[in-house]
Write a structure and sequence with these properties.
The structure is a single chain. With 186 residues, the chain is mainly alpha-helical. The protein has a single domain (31-185), classed as Cobalamin adenosyltransferase-like (Hypothetical Protein Ta1238, Chain: A). 62% of the residues lie in helices and 5% in strands. The protein has 6 helices and 4 strands; from the N terminus they run E-E-H-H-H-H-E-H-H-E. Strand 1 and strand 2 form a beta hairpin.
Length: 186
């Protein structure tokens, strides 16, 4: 069996192929959108690695399970973004149940913490800081997807990314409490 090569050389001229076979410039807004979703996933991978290094605790395990589901959903969203024909989204599209899951997770975390009365300052723990980096990258992904315009991507996908950034903010607060630390505020 011959080794699989990562490089194809097809992008050396400044274009890349989409799932429908079309080619677009590497600075195409669609590529910026799915590249930023990919960046969000990379940030979440770092969060998952940091989380795995913490002592076992129910909150840690629950958050790890939730992040695993988020990663799978973002992968599906990226596939849909990489297919301007819309064929992929019909097979792997995100639906309102994923948004409801994020909302339920946020509600449960918020119920377990004191209410937020001031602006939260990131940096209490590395995990909190990395969740905030993931949140800001997710917000940029949301802006990139919105810039594609109506009809270029299902609205439920944009809603999911919007809610995900909210979830990442709440999770960043939640891990501070899970680690027995006190939040810092501005």
């Amino acid at each position: 069996m011959s080794p699989v090569r990562v490089y194809t050389r097809t992008g050396d001229g400044g274009t890349t192929g989409l799932l429908d076979g079309s080619r677009v410039a590497k600075d195409d807004p669609r590529l910026e959108a799915y590249g930023t979703v990919d960046e969000t996933q990379a940030c979440l991978g770092e969060v998952e690695a940091l989380l795995a290094e913490l002592p076992a605790a129910p909150w840690r395990d629950d958050l790890g399970t939730r992040l695993d589901r988020v990663q799978a959903t973002l992968f599906a969203l990226n596939a849909a973004l990489a297919d301007p024909s819309g064929a992929v989204v019909k097979r792997v599209g995100v639906d309102a149940t994923e948004i409801a899951a994020l909302e339920g997770w946020m509600d449960a975390m918020l119920d377990a913490m004191p209410p937020q009365t001031r602006f939260v300052r990131p940096g209490v723990t590395v995990l909190q800081a990395r969740l905030n980096v993931a949140r800001t990258v997710c917000r940029r992904a949301e802006r990139c997807i919105a810039a594609l315009g109506a009809g270029a991507f299902p609205a439920v996908g944009l809603s999911y990314v919007n809610r995900l950034s909210d979830f990442l903010f709440v999770a960043s607060r939640f891990v501070v409490y899970g680690q027995g630390r006190a939040e810092r505020f501005f």
